[in-house]
Amino acid sequence: MALVDPRNNEYDVNKLNTGSIVGHVDTDSARIWVRVYKPGKWTLVWSEKKLVGDLISLDEISIEKFLSSQGCNQKNTIQHEFDENSDLCNTFDITNLKPDTTYYYYLMSPNQISKSMWRRTEIGYQKTFSFTTMAQSMPDFSFGFYSCHDPFNANNSNGAWPLFLNRANSAGVRFIIGGGDQIYVDCQDNKYFPDIWEWLQDNKDELIKTYTLNGELHSPSLNAYLLNLYRWYYRVYWKFPHMQEIFSRTPQYMIWDDHEIMDGWGSRTNEERLEILARYFKHDDPEIDQQLVDSMWRAARIAYFEYAHSHNPPTNTTISKLEDPEKCIWDYNFIKGTTPFYVLDLRGHHNVENTRNRLLGDAQVDRFLAWLNTEPVKKSKIVFVVSPVPFVHWKATVLTAGSLIGSLKDDLMDEWDHWTNHDERDFLLDKIFEDFNAEGRTLVFLSGDVHCAAAFRLQHRTYRKANVFQVTSSAISRMPAGFVVSAGIAKTGTLNGNDNVQFEHIFSHSEDKNFAIFHVRNSSSITVDLCWPGGTEGEAVIKTIQLE
User: What is the pLDDT of residues 417-465, one digit of tens each?
Assistant: First the structure.
């Protein structure tokens, strides 16, 4: 059976052709990600006022002359040559913007209309696309949080995205954080949609046959094929209209979790990863299987960079460094007004076979500790830290019993609360409690992963003045965990394996898809609205929690 072409095969579902994402936006700059339907030169245009007139032909004049004719700055353009090497994706960096100002943006072609292109304005000719820069002073602001986007697990449902769009608009959110699992390349049980690792096992012989040259796997060809396969998942998962509406207008900050790579990535040993490709009654070459796993890991991180990380605040990770996973930095930080945020990466350097810092890796722990010691963090009354997996959620008995079950073992080893991660967890928590104790400051962990909404307060026996909260919102479109698992959610008690830290169960809800909207007031107080579908007229049910 011939291999499918991931670039063309639809698997009975549509995929994104042209789309945009507003990424990191500061007071004077913005990152705009674009995926376009065809290669060639395209120009990003931005303006403080909406463009009018013939956006289809641009009056058959140059883009610069068209802008000038409308009284707009003809220098507000950036041109890029899109090609297949980057899957027709690019992130544009706009600078020299004004604070707290709305800009309209467009993607235009410098070429005249032809048979292969019937309009010159690809983005912005029918709908208005805009972004607003951050204000110099932002004592009051709101932002959204979501995780676990998997509509195919829920019969192609839009999930809570329509409600999220509505509530985000009503609250005037300034930005949104995607807390992991923006796509699911695995865990599927859908005849129209393959689990990428099951697909690899089933098609391994044909893959090896196709990409063997002179008796060896030809790495460049194999890598290109598997990369296009991972890209296909982003294009399929991100084509939902309400999601695209939010992406194209509100600044997005993203981080991955395991399902962008492999279920339980980092919590499986290398031997356990190879076992996924093993087949009964067939001779499998472990060296070939290792090459396949390595190529899949390479494909996963390149596709994640192209579609998600490239429009986050810049780290040292570039296309050239993606070949060496140890050189990649996926964690990052940013500030809104005077409120600092840090986004932890729990997958890029997660390795259960490490002797310490299995979740974050040594270098990331050092970066995070250094950030805690920076002046903006030390001076802020409130700080947010994104951890895709929550610090507290399940009962200790669930973690212990589940770790003995093969299908749950890697999921529970992902948890900070699992005994294999206690040293790393306790070290970070002690540092946080100590740092936030002196001024009685507040740190809020934002998490996803567990397909429930929940809120906990954490307190330390020694550092009593520090305020630490864990708020979890998951999943926005994947099926929720359900009522049965509510009995397994931790109640008020002592942190598993750490008698110095107690936690208070404030709220949990496991029956519905959900999202969260946070409200910061006077740079010193926080409320969070945990929202899910359930009203009689289709409106959101809202549980508001004061984090104090």
Answer: 999 999 999 999 999 999 999 889 999 999 999 999 999 999 999 999 9
Cβ atoms of residues 481 and 452 within 8 Å: yes
Q: Is 13 helix (H, G, I), strand (E, B) or coil?
A: coil
Tell me how far apart the alpha carbons of residues 381 and 400 are, in angstroms, rounded to a whole number: 37
Phi, psi of 102 (to 5 degrees): -90, 130
Distance of CA 508 to the CA centre of its chain: 23
Backbone angles phi, psi at 544, to 5 degrees: -95, 130
Radius of gyration of the chain (CA): 24
DSSP string, 299-344: HHHHHHHHHTGGGSSP-S--GGGGGSGGG----EEEEETTEEEEE-
Query: In sequence order, what are the beta bridge partners of 529?
Result: 517, 544
Cα torsion angle, 224, 228, 230, 234, sign:
positive
Count of helix runs (H) and strand runs (E) in the chain? 13, 24
Q: 10-24, 187-201, 453-467: which has the minimum mean pLDDT?
A: 187-201
User: Half-sphere exposure of residue 122, counting CA atoms within 13 Å on the CB side?
Assistant: 24
pLDDT, one tens digit per residue, over 221-263 is 999 999 999 999 999 999 999 999 999 999 999 999 999 999 9
Q: How many CB atoms are closer than 10 A to CB 335?
A: 16
